[in-house]
């Protein structure tokens, strides 16, 4: 088997897919270079250099077969960080080229396509929960800041939602697990990549006084209105799973 090693980017992955066909590789796998562990010193590897033009050629051709919604599904698979995601995407591309007259992403009889469908549903659920449970906190510089720690890399999928919803204020959303975020400055909405991980203690020291007062008032209100006799913890957890409580002021 030949292992194609790429840089972990979306463009890098589709450059690797292009080169599978360019070099007519048959028994092949695509692996993130940082995750590759060569157990057999005689195993064959191929170093992929990311080339946007090659990636674009694959995506443009693929769009003709599965449309933009299909490309978006494959993006979700990529963002899922599933250990099989590279080769599931390669399988989808191969099947699209083999059956150009049909949308192969609807062929759930195929095990790879079924996995892709299940992954997309899981990513969609996480995306929805991030839009529902993210809480912004006002900082001393007037910027509203939110921290998230999603199971999947859904930040690119929620960017438009927050840009459209909060157009009149500056805000940042930071992914604690992946150490990057989005910053909106009233004009542009760009990704940022800090050199060091967020220091949560320092972060809390930078709360605006209004934010501190708001959190105290909200916690008091929640305590007063939370009637013990009517508690239904099981139902509550169904609607708001425990792993999302860390985002909610009333749960702190």
What does this structure look like?
With about 250 residues, this protein is α/β, with parallel strands linked by helices. The protein contains eight helices and eight strands. The strands form two sheets. It has a five-stranded mixed β-sheet with strand order 4-5-6-7-8, with helices on one face. A three-stranded parallel β-sheet has the order 2-1-3. Helix 4 packs parallel to helix 5 (about 155-165). The N and C termini lie far apart (about 50 Å).
Can you tag this structure with a few keywords?
single chain, 252 residues, alpha/beta, 5-stranded mixed sheet, 3-stranded parallel sheet, 8 strands
Short description:
The chain is α/β, with parallel strands linked by helices and 252 residues long.
> Could you give a short account of the major beta sheet?
5 strands, mixed
Report low-confidence residues grouped into runs of 5 or more: none
Q: What's the N-to-C terminus distance?
A: 51 Å
Q: Note the beta-strand portion.
A: 5-15%
- Overall structural class, as computed from helix and strand content, comes to alpha/beta
Please count the beta strands (DSSP E, at least 2 residues each).
8
User: Which value, in Å, is the CA radius of gyration?
Assistant: 22 Å
Number of helical elements: 8
State the shape: globular
Widest beta sheet: strand line-up:
4-5-6-7-8
Order of helices and strands: EHEEHHHEEHEEEHHH
The amount of helix comes to: 40-55%
Q: Provide mean pLDDT, rounded.
A: 85
